[in-house]
Specification:
150 residues; mainly beta; 7-stranded mixed β-sheet; 10 strands; disordered N terminus; Ig_sub; membrane
Length: 150
């Protein structure tokens, strides 16, 4: 117990910048954009490393040296996570999660390793679009600042 707590504390000390948690709503069968962007711009593709994880630390998507990698992707996210490569150099590392289901609800994290930024996104899944109107985001995010260093 003490070892686990110390490990978490040590990890958090190594991260220089943490952004505020963002809450996003989606609907069963729909899609949603999970925002993640850096406050630094003009990134060089070969320097970009971003790790997307879910609440259980399972891999959703990795960007390694500016290229998408699904090599260690958890099977539940196969063909369900999309990125916006044309946005990487501008510091936008958001992902689009498609075909949402109940098990997707919870916290996601986006760790931008080259700038030591960590973003957390809380995903809420609703039964249908009729409950609250359609708040599902289906388009590419533009210059979102949800994950800025602090």
């Amino acid at each position: 117990m003490i070892f686990g707590c110390c490990s978490i504390c040590a990890f958090l000390v190594l991260i220089n910048k943490v952004c505020l948690q963002v809450t996003v709503e989606g609907f069963i069968g729909g899609s949603v954009v999970l925002p993640c962007s850096s406050d630094k711009h003009d990134h060089k593709l070969q320097d970009i490393n971003v790790l997307w994880r879910n609440k259980d630390s399972e891999t959703i998507y990795n960007l390694i040296k500016g290229k998408g990698s699904v090599e260690r992707q958890d099977p539940q996210y196969k063909n369900r996570a999309e990125t916006f490569p044309e946005e990487y150099e501008r510091g936008n590392f958001s992902i689009k999660l498609i075909n949402l289901n109940h098990t997707d609800a919870g916290q996601f994290s986006c760790f931008i390793t080259h700038t030591d930024e960590l973003c957390t996104i809380q995903l809420i899944i609703n039964e249908s679009t009729e409950e609250k109107g359609n708040k599902t985001q289906n388009k590419k995010p533009k210059d979102q600042k949800h994950c800025q260093g602090g």
